[in-house]
Amino acid sequence: MVWNGAQFHMLVNHLPVIGFVGMVLALAVAVTVQSIDIKRFVLVATALVGLSALAPYLTGESAEEVIEHEPGVSESLIHEHEELAEIATVLSVITGVAAAAAFVLQRSRPDTLRLTVPVVLLLSVISSGLMGAAAHEGGKIRHPEIRTDADGALPGETDNESPGD
Fold first, then answer.
1. Which residues 6+ apart lie within 8 Å of 103 measured at CB?
2. Which residue in 27, 49, 28 sits closest to 40, CA to CA?
3. Alpha-carbon distance 26 to 115, whole Å?
4. How many folded domains does the chain comprise?
5. Which residues contact 125 (CB under 8 A, 6 or more apart)?
6. What is the pTM of this model?
7. Can you tell me the distance from the alpha carbon of 75 to that of 140, in angstroms, rounded to the nearest whole number?
8. pLDDT in tens, 11-41
């Protein structure tokens, strides 16, 4: 089986979306418990999830090349997804780097966890929301059932078609 860019994109795009939901829950627990080991583990896991956002970003262009000329695919929907995904990726990577920095900092100063874990939690909540929104916009590209009239092309149309053409 030969995989194309769209298949790779679909394979990797779920990790940061679902991963950040899990990290928000884990960080919320880490804020409330006294265990330094749990806090450390959750920071490392958050760093990995944050950096995992690079995979869908790097495979997005090849996915677009595969589907952009398919019937019913709207360039405007692709553009909306691309713009939101770029913002989500940047913030996710920032969140991952912040989590990694918090982990490194706490190695010499464990007392910093009281401040850094809640900050990483806040960044993760925002990253999770943006990742979810970007995923929803991406879903609109091939799932007309989640589109609204305000989304542009109706099911079966492309940017260059209008009803009745």
1. 40, 43, 44, 47
2. 27
3. 16
4. 1
5. 24
6. 0.84
7. 11
8. 899 999 999 999 999 999 999 999 999 999 9
